[in-house]
């Protein structure tokens, strides 16, 4: 029945009921099902609406060292919405990374890992992808960390270099807190900690090279901020030889007499013999005969040490005496001598065949083997016997010259008694080293 006719129909019924018409009852009880055809249902009345993804934020901004922030994910459509969350930056952590919503908002926590973010400003994108439908994104920005910057970027030290200064400042944002350390105890920095805002500060770096081995070494100064990546300053330290440290003596000459006479020797006088790995001086005369054997003519060494092993024969065989010469002059009759016999040892300065000065002490050399040495340094000459200082003499007559050997009153040729003991003066292991 059309809508207008239905209104008229119901109006007539109401009027009839009001006046008590007898035919109103059948009309009111009449089944009208057949007269009202069923209205077909539409698709809109039967279908459930699709899930729809809604985010509570489109952007997040993190200040320096700020804490986590939150946003929500919600399904504004029908059914249940499942979704996944992802960040394109490793320093941005999302919790949880997935979820489901049937209409209720789900909270997601976004947090910056400031230890891993690195220096400079950073951006990232959070992407929320539903199981069906289009994904949504949130833009993220993180402010720059406080960053230590410095000049120079490296340092070099040697013996002439004193303390150096590194200029350090904060080239990031906020306030920079740093601690400085070194890779070696010989390297020090002051101050060891600092807080820097916008000003530049001075870091003093010093090296204590005492006790360090000679050569070059590489060390590091580490600048470590409270948050962020540490930076390093390479330091190169060159250690030169310490002038005050004992020097390893350089051997200028050495002869063990194992192969007879060395061609380096120049005999100025006397009968020198080389047998059985020893050097000896002998003469046909009973006494008063001297012999001198020098290194090549023209040797002009200044400060050096001459030493040798000396065997003194028994007094009943010979009154032999032996001497070690330093700073001998070209006339071969002027030198400084350290030597002695069984009675005494001493230092003697000879000039033009005469003794200019001397220093003697008793007792002298004992029978048998002993080590005799003379050191000449500047104007000071020192005599040692078996490593013990026996006497010292100061003389400025000669500044440089040749080393050599001298022997006198050694009248026996090399000889051995029936027990195999030598019965004449023997010399071995003659050595000259620099001082």
Summarize the structure in short:
This protein is mostly beta strands and 435 residues long.
List the helices and strands and how they pair.
Blueprint lengths: L2 H17 L4 H6 L13 H4 L6 E3 L3 E4 L6 E7 L5 E7 L4 E4 L2 E4 L4 E7 L9 E9 L5 E7 L5 E4 L3 E3 L6 E7 L5 E7 L4 E4 L2 E4 L4 E7 L7 E11 L5 E9 L11 E5 L10 E4 L1 E5 L2 E5 L7 E5 L9 E9 L8 E8 L6 E6 L4 E7 L2 E8 L6 E10 L2 E6 L2 E7 L7 E7 L17 E9 L1
Structure report:
- This protein has a seven-stranded antiparallel β-sheet with strand order 20-23-32-25-26-27-28, with no helix packed on it. A six-stranded antiparallel β-sheet has the order 19-33-24-29-30-31, with no helix packed on it.
- 6% of the residues lie in helices and 48% in strands.
- It is rod-shaped, with a radius of gyration of 55 Å.
- It starts with a helix and ends with a strand.
- The protein has three helices and 33 strands.
- It has helices at residues 3-19, 24-29, 43-46, and strands at residues 53-55, 59-62, 69-75, 81-87, 92-95, 98-101, 106-112, 122-130, 136-142, 148-151, 155-157, 164-170, 176-182, 187-190, 193-196, 201-207, 215-225, 231-239, 251-255, 266-269, 271-275, 278-282, 290-294, 304-312, 321-328, 335-340, 345-351, 354-361, 368-377, 380-385, 388-394, 402-408, 426-434.
- By secondary structure, it is mostly beta strands.
- Residues 410-420 have low confidence and may be disordered.
Estimated structural class: mainly beta
The whole-angstrom Rg is 55 Å
Q: Biggest β-sheet, characterized?
A: 7 strands, antiparallel
What is the beta-strand fraction? Answer: over 45%
Number of domains: 4
Under CATH, the topology of the largest domain can be stated as: Jelly Rolls
Number of E-state strands = 33
Q: Termini, distance in Å? A: 137 Å
List the strand order in the largest sheet.
Answer: 20-23-32-25-26-27-28
CATH superfamily of the largest domain: Exo-inulinase, domain 1
Name of the top-level CATH class of the largest domain = Mainly Beta
Shape: rod-shaped
Report the total helices.
Answer: 3
């Amino acid at each position: 029945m059309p809508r207008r006719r239905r209104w008229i129909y119901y109006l007539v019924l109401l009027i009839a009921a009001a006046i008590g018409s007898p035919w109103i009852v059948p009309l009111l009880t009449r089944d009208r099902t057949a007269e009202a055809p069923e209205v077909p249902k539409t698709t809109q009345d039967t279908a459930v609406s699709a899930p729809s993804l809604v985010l509570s934020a489109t952007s997040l901004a993190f200040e320096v060292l700020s804490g986590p922030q939150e946003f929500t994910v919600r399904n504004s459509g029908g059914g249940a919405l499942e979704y996944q969350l992802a960040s394109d930056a490793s320093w941005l952590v999302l919790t949880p990374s997935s979820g489901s919503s049937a209409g209720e908002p789900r909270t997601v926590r976004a947090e910056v890992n400031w230890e891993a973010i690195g220096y400079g400003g950073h951006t990232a994108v959070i992407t929320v992808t539903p199981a069906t439908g289009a994904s949504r994104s949130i833009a993220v920005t993180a402010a720059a960390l406080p960053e230590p910057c410095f000049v120079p970027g490296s340092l070099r030290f040697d013996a002439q270099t004193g303390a150096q200064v590194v200029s350090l400042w904060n080239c990031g944002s906020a306030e920079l807190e740093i601690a400085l350390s070194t890779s070696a105890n010989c390297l020090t920095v002051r101050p060891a900690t600092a807080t820097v805002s916008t000003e530049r500060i001075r870091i003093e770096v010093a090296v204590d090279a005492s006790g360090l081995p000679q050569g070059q070494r590489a060390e590091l100064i580490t600048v470590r901020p409270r948050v962020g990546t540490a930076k390093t300053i390479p330091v190169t330290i060159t250690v030169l030889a310490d002038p005050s440290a004992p020097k390893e003596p350089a051997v200028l000459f050495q002869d063990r007499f194992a192969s007879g006479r060395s061609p380096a020797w120049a005999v100025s006088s006397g009968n020198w013999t080389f047998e059985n790995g020893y050097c000896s001086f002998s003469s046909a005369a009973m006494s008063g005969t001297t012999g001198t054997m020098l290194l090549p003519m023209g040797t002009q060494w200044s400060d050096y040490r001459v030493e040798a092993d000396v065997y003194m024969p028994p007094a009943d065989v010979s009154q032999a005496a032996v001497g070690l010469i330093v700073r001998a002059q070209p006339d071969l009759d002027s030198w400084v001598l350290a030597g002695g016999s069984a009675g005494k040892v001493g230092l003697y300065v000879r000039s033009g065949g005469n003794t200019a000065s001397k220093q003697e002490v008793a007792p002298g050399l004992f029978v048998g083997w002993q080590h005799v040495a003379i050191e000449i340094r500047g104007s000071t000459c020192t005599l040692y016997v078996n490593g013990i200082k026996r006497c010292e003499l100061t003389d400025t007559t000669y500044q440089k010259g040749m080393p050599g050997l001298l022997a006198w009153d050694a009248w026996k040729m090399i000889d051995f008694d029936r027990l195999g003991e030598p019965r004449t003066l023997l010399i071995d292991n003659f050595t000259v080293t620099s001082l």
